[in-house]
């Protein structure tokens, strides 16, 4: 999707200073994936259901007159029981029939118009339905469309009407015509629709020769978001038909479908209309077959006005270049775009705005970067790296970018980070603009990363798409991996690969440590809510991590050639992960590598959690043993067909033969708990020799050793840390801290891995260390020993702060810029006097005169420290100034405003967060978490959320994803049983079917572990801090 925003990207304050859980995930189903009933039982249940439905159909046919008047009730229908389920390995065939319409309209029960009609039954069944254990009639309704009709071509005409400048009057009148191929006889057309009004009289169906098809009834199932058009006679397999209708879609500021966005231009509110269709919101703009497998070609026409001064410069954009324009009625200009390639609905994109652009023309395509007239020159960096990266991917995959143009546009209001719409990529404004005078190192780097992510989607997701959303990782996991490949094409000096593990694997470990985590390949994905929950850390970061592991054990060139083969075979089509495994295995075999990719990778994508590998050795052999890394009550999770064993590619290096590139792969397979390997070097811990496993942390697993080897590794860090790769220095720290939570190592041993940090000058190990230290800080924030902890942190940071300083040099390396932002952040947070004094001085000068620029890389901490050390009048001044700042600086200020030490100011900020006139809806979560992460604000935020829960979730309508992020952020700060009980009480006030229950359960797991951690380790931490001081 949309690039998933993380809390570790360095754009806001360092994550070590605002530690939160990264991403969202839902509790997995209690079922295993695959078939749920025997063939015999399934046959009997299927026969009974079909017979029942047939009898109902006979009764209804003779009892209820089929009058077109019945179609005037455009309210819901309910899904009848459908027997069947997924194939054990691939998605089943969806039902070819629409769900029957209920006698009582569930969406508007006051509707008295008869709704019953006859729907013929066929042998095919729903792809996502399942049989429950209680009764064959208690079925989960299937949200999947029938497959008896396949769209081939759409003509869509839309008129986003925002020209009154009165938001309540905005709407989008439209027209759609769909050419449909009938693959199986059916008596209805069922397609998606949501929040659209229409007149039934405009709905028409035609034969290929233009003769009309009789429409019996039109009904709408609001729960399933289906529009059901019953016809007579049946539509016949092998024939083409045309469906058309007029409608009016809403045009509101909800960041979904076709919506409006605003920005300020010299005191005037400017409006634009833009889209976000992934995953299930194309249906909110026009009726369509809104699933990824229903690909078609599209002819798009967008109508606009330019006959008034306020709108004279307005243009429209879509996926393809403009073909021609003509004058439509009512003073509108109709912009007709070239026909698209075959594509799914979720990749369509539209924009109506007065933006300007920069352009780069190559031999085969043109890239344009759009933004407001005030900001478009700041898209030059995104354009530069975009051209480099797109060319790089063309060469890498040996497959050209297939469209004639690629636009990228910066949107003021945008819910995600970016969206890979084919030919028109949309971004949140601050993630596309770069100004060397004001942009932080983190944002500078992030612009390149997010552009690379979206451009990787041109192959993964666009040229090939998953058959269904359960394989979403084939889009997002690959884009999250290839963003690093892409950035390396254009900025190799950044050494971005070194940061992969800390930005992807470590966050994935954090959420994948619970029994209620889920496999990468998701099961029971049915409703829009099910789909939305898949855009999480498991799909993105864990998906990317196992792909990187595969890149290492197959070899980079083998993976490249295999992926090229996989894409070429399925271009413009849909894929399942089994087809990926087959292509990669075939490529490996051609190169003489006998690797069964499916046998290996199924253990990584079909079960949750990950292994911890215990490594021991003697003078001639290395021995390994794998166990499951999981925290909490394992009975709460699902079982695994692999019994939580993995096929693990092991790599080793040692003090006697330090190699960190092209290390041999040693396999421990899923049928092995233990494995032994010959090792040519004699290793003796008594001589401070060491073995290190998981070189560069390519493998998605943690490592444990005997204490003597840990001590040898830690001594090496202390004596000469440069002899261990930066990624493995980070790994040593994070593995030890994770093993403490598993009670596999003593916390005092883990803490000694931090001793060498006084010498460390690389960003990657410091990032990892500060995140781990951040967890300890969160556990101690309200404890009596926090003062000693603060003193310890001052001692850790003073030396590196003295080396790197508050101010950077011209043309400094990206490593040093990122490192400074984190070290200065820590130094000021822990009240190192020089840092606080410098920050307050810079802040005060800037508040007096904005021409006194703050160095970009320390701006986040300067703003926070300035607010922390000031009073409410300064807070008000900064809040009022925020709207006039650059988008990236607005993000920094949003976080800084949460740093106040005045309780009433923080309480007021919470109210602002839910006021659209104060804070953009897309930024509400950031404001709330800024208060949560303030030690003085945690309880203020929590109490506010409890008091206003119904308003936040129903009236304000905050998204489930943002609710989850806030709950996890809050949970990361809760450390007592009392706090845990309060959280549980709020959960218990919700209905058992609430969409928020899994999020509360995840948060409660976090708090349970926090409580256990403090209970077990408080005394040890107190002793350690006493010794350290």
UniProtKB/TrEMBL annotation:
Q: Name one GO cellular component term.
A: plasma membrane
- What residues form the catalytic site here? 454
Q: Which cofactor does it need?
A: Zn(2+)
Gene3D superfamilies named in the record? 1.25.50.20, 2.60.40.1910, Neutral Protease Domain 2, tricorn interacting facor f3 domain
Q: Where in the cell is it found?
A: Cell membrane; Membrane
User: Could you tell me the keywords of this UniProt record?
Assistant: Cell membrane, Disulfide bond, Glycoprotein, Hydrolase, Membrane, Metal-binding, Metalloprotease, Protease, Signal-anchor, Transmembrane, Transmembrane helix, Zinc
Q: Where is this site: Transition state stabilizer?
A: 540
What name does UniProt use for this protein?
Answer: Aminopeptidase
Q: Which organism is it from?
A: Magallana gigas (Pacific oyster)
């Amino acid at each position: 999707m949309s690039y998933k925003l993380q809390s570790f990207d360095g754009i806001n304050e360092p994550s070590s200073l605002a530690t939160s859980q990264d991403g969202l995930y839902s509790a997995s189903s209690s079922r295993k994936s695959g078939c749920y009933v025997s063939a015999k039982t399934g046959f009997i249940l299927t026969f009974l259901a079909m017979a029942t439905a047939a009898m109902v159909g006979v009764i209804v046919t003779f009892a209820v007159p089929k009058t077109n008047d019945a179609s005037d009730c455009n309210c819901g229908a309910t899904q009848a029981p459908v027997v069947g389920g997924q194939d054990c390995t691939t998605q089943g065939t969806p039902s070819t029939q629409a769900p029957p319409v209920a006698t009582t309209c569930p969406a508007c029960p006051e509707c008295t118009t008869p709704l019953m009609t006859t729907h013929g039954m066929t042998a095919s069944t729903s792809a996502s339905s399942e049989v429950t254990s209680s009764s064959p009639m208690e079925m989960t309704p299937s949200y999947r469309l029938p497959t008896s009709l396949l769209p081939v071509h759409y003509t869509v005409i839309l008129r986003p009407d925002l020209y009154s400048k009165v938001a309540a009057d905005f709407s989008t009148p439209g027209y759609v015509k769909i050419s449909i191929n009938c693959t199986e006889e059916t008596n209805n057309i069922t397609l998606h629709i949501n929040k659209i009004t229409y007149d039934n009289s405009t709905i028409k169906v035609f034969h290929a020769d233009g003769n009309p098809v009789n429409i019996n009834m039109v009904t709408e199932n609001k729960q399933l978001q289906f529009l059901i058009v019953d016809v007579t006679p049946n539509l016949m397999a092998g024939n083409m038909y045309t469906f058309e209708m007029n409608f009016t879609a809403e045009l509101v500021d909800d960041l979904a479908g076709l919506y409006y966005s605003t920005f300020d231009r010299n005191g005037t509110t400017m409006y634009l209309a833009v889209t976000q269709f992934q995953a299930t919101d194309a249906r909110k703009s026009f009726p369509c077959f809104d699933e990824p497998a229903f690909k078609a070609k599209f002819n798009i026409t967008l109508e606009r006005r330019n006959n008034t001064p306020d709108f004279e410069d307005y243009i429209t954009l879509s996926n393809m270049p403009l073909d021609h324009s003509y004058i439509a009625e009512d003073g509108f200009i109709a912009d007709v775009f070239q026909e698209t390639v075959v594509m799914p609905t979720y990749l369509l994109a539209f924009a109506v705005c007065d933006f300007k652009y920069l352009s780069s023309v190559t031999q085969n395509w043109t890239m344009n970067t759009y933004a407001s007239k005030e900001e478009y020159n700041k898209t030059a960096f995104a354009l530069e790296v975009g051209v480099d990266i797109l060319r790089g991917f063309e060469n890498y995959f040996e497959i050209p970018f297939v469209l004639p143009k690629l636009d990228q546009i910066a949107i003021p209001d945008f819910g995600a980070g970016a969206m890979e719409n084919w030919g028109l990529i949309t971004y949140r404004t601050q993630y596309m603009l770069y100004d060397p005078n004001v942009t932080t190192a983190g944002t500078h780097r992030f612009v390149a990363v997010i552009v690379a992510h979206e451009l990787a989607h041109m192959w993964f997701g666009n040229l090939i798409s998953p058959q269904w959303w359960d394989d979403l990782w084939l889009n997002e996991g690959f884009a999250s991996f290839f963003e690093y490949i892409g950035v390396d094409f254009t900025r190799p000096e950044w050494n971005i690969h070194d940061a992969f593990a800390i930005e992807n694997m470590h966050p994935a470990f954090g959420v994948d440590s619970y029994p209620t985590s889920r496999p990468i390949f998701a099961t029971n994905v049915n409703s829009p809510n099910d789909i939305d929950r898949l855009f999480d850390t498991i799909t993105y970061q864990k998906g990317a991590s196992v792909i990187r592991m595969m890149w290492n054990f197959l070899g980079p060139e083998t993976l490249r050639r295999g992926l090229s083969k996989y894409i070429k075979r399925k271009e413009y089509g849909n894929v399942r992960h089994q087809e990926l495994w087959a292509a990669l295995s075939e490529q490996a075999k051609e190169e003489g590598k006998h690797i069964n990719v499916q046998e290996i990778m199924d253990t990584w994508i079909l079960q949750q959690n990950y292994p911890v590998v215990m490594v021991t050795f003697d003078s001639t052999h290395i021995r390994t043993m794998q166990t499951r890394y999981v925290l909490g009550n394992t009975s709460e999770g699902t079982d695994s067909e692999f019994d939580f064993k993995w096929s693990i590619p092991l790599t080793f290096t040692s003090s006697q033969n330090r190699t960190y590139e092209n290390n041999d792969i040693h396999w421990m397979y899923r049928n092995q708990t233990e494995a032994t390997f010959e090792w040519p070097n004699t290793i003796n811990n008594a001589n401070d020799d060491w073995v290190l496993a998981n070189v560069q942390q390519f493998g998605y697993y943690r490592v444990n050793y005997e204490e003597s080897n840990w001590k040898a590794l830690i001594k090496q860090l202390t004596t000469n840390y440069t002899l261990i790769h930066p990624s493995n220095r980070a790994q040593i720290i994070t593995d030890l801290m994770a093993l403490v939570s598993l009670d596999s190592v003593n916390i005092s041993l883990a803490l000694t891995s931090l001793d060498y940090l006084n010498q460390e000058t690389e960003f990657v190990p410091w990032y990892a260390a500060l995140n781990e230290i951040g967890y300890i800080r969160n556990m101690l924030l309200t404890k009596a020993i926090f003062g000693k902890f603060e003193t310890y942190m001052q001692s850790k940071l003073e030396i590196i702060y003295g080396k790197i300083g508050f101010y950077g040099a011209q043309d400094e390396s990206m490593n040093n810029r990122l490192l400074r932002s984190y070290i200065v952040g820590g130094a000021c947070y822990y009240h190192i006097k020089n840092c606080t004094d410098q920050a307050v001085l810079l802040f005060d000068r800037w508040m007096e005169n904005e021409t006194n620029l703050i160095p970009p890389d320390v701006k986040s901490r300067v703003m926070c420290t300035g607010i922390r050390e000031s009073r409410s009048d300064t807070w008000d001044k900064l809040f009022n100034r925020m709207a006039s700042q650059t988008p990236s600086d607005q993000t920094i200020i949003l976080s800084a405003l949460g740093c106040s030490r005045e309780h009433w100011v923080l309480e007021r900020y919470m109210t602002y967060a839910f006021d659209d006139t104060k804070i953009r809806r897309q930024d509400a979560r950031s404001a709330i978490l800024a208060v949560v992460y303030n030690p003085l604000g945690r309880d203020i935020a929590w109490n506010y959320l409890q008091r206003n829960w119904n308003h936040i979730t129903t009236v304000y309508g905050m998204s489930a994803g943002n609710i989850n992020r806030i709950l996890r952020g809050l949970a990361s700060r809760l450390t007592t049983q009392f706090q845990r009980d309060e959280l549980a009480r709020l959960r218990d006030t919700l209905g058992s079917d609430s969409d928020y229950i899994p999020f509360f359960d995840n948060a409660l797991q976090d708090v349970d572990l926090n409580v256990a951690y403090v209970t077990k380790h408080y005394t040890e931490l107190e002793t350690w801090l006493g010794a350290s001081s």
